[in-house]
Amino acid sequence: MPLKLREVRNVGTVNMPFFNEDHEAKCFEQHHRQMDYIYSLNDSLERRIPVTSIEFNPPPVSRLAKQEAEYWLQLQQPDEEDVKILKALKTKLKALARCHRSGVFISITDSAAGILRMHNLTLLRLLHNQAFTDTWLDSVPIIWEQKRTILHLTRNHSFAWLRHFLAQASSLGFNQLLLITGDPLTQIRLKTVTAQEALQLPEEQAALYRPKNSIEMLHFIDAVAPDFFTGVCHNPFLRKEAAHKHLLKKVAAGARFIITQPVSYYEECWRVMADFDAFQKDQHLNVPVILGVFNYHVPCNASGYKAETFEKRYKFWKKLFGYVPEGVRLDYDMGLNGVEILARSINKLKRMGHFHFDVMNAERNGWTVINKGKSFVHELDRLVGVFDHAGEPRQ
To answer: Is 339 within 8 Å of 295 (Cβ atoms)?
Structure first.
């Protein structure tokens, strides 16, 4: 019988398995309809099994020591910041456990948006540790499925740290990585070298250098840990020719899958994606593509949203992705919100035959949106009885 989450408290910490290999997962293959399997990302992409990945951000921390698991496992007297982080971890554990039980993939970022955060492996270790979750989170730990976990990895680490990370991740069974150049961290200032140069460095000097970009990370990982299933990001909305050229270099370096920056249901996005599809066919690219979707969340109340709040979020999104569809502002003006935009985008992906998508910025309601997406109206219906099919007020 599969080990149920509620039974974990009765299992000794030392003997508790890190992964729940017997967890039953839904099967989408007709010839396997009599059995349940847990498919890895690689298997899912090859077999065209529907994949949903919910992205999670580890909590921000103020200093490098708090990125590591050792700090938290030895914690005795939490300071004011630690209390806030522990509260955030408790909330994330509930959301992660809900997604985990639902069978979706979990994607955990690496100091996203240039914010120093707890390491993703640290987050996994802490939420699995029964003594830690009992003491600080008053919750049962999670028994992870490594096949349904994707770890982000940016260039904001030394080559020495990367070696340690890869060895630790491999020993724990996590071998699915999303490599991102990432925004620079002010707390980490290292010189950059190529992977070939890094491989020649003595161990003590490897701690002084980091990769130039995701291409060099691909080369380095291929040299020291070739068994990892590595993917890369692609933004088809910016500097199209340069972005396409850069993507070809990533594929040549060994990228096994691609995740796009967020694609929404707006026509302007799908014109760009049509060009990207044509580019893939022209270049004979057979690397699987996962389309990213995003929760353009702005707090709303009965009176709607505050324009100044939207502008702040808009500037942040523009910095993060380089573009924001104009339809987002129009939708908010018409009374819609980020959750409905997200749900409509997912629904359009499904109708257009895209099975694979990555849900960003939706930790708390990501699974709810996906599970209840059918309750949202078709995007052309807008607000029935208020707006016509062109999105203009009825006369």
So the answer is: yes
83-104 confidence digits (pLDDT tens): 999 999 999 999 998 887 877 8
Instruction: Provide the pLDDT for residue 376.
Output: 54
Is a pLDDT exceeding 70 seen at residue 165?
A: yes
Residue 240: per-residue pLDDT: 79
Q: Let me know how many helices (H) and strands (E) the chain has, helices first.
A: 15, 12
Is the pLDDT at 391 greater than 80? The verdict is: no
Structural fold of domain 41-375:
TIM Barrel (3.20.20)
CB burial of residue 30 (10 Å; 0-12, 13-18, 19+): exposed
Per-residue pLDDT at 1: 38
Q: Is 82 left (phi over 0), alpha (psi -120 to 50) or beta?
A: alpha
**Buried-exposed string 252-267: b where 16+ CB fall within 10 A, e elsewhere:** ebebbbbbbbbbbbbe
Q: How much is the average pLDDT of 68-97?
A: 95
Residue 86 is encoded by which pair of tokens?
Answer: 């522990």
Residue ranges of the domains in the chain?
Answer: 41-375
Gap between the terminal Cα atoms of the chain = 62
Which stretches of 91-157 are assigned E, i.e. beta strand? 105-108, 149-154
Q: Is pLDDT above 50 for 214?
A: yes
CA–CA separation, 91 and 69 (whole Å): 18
Helix (H) or strand (E) holding 234: strand 229-234
* CA 47 – CA 40 distance, rounded (Å): 11
Longest dimension (CA), the chain: 74
- Average of per-residue pLDDT across 153-174: 95
* Average pLDDT score over residue span 229-255: 92
CA dist 258 and 292 (Å) reads: 10
Altogether, the residues listed in the chain come to a count of 395
144, two tokens: 């992870």
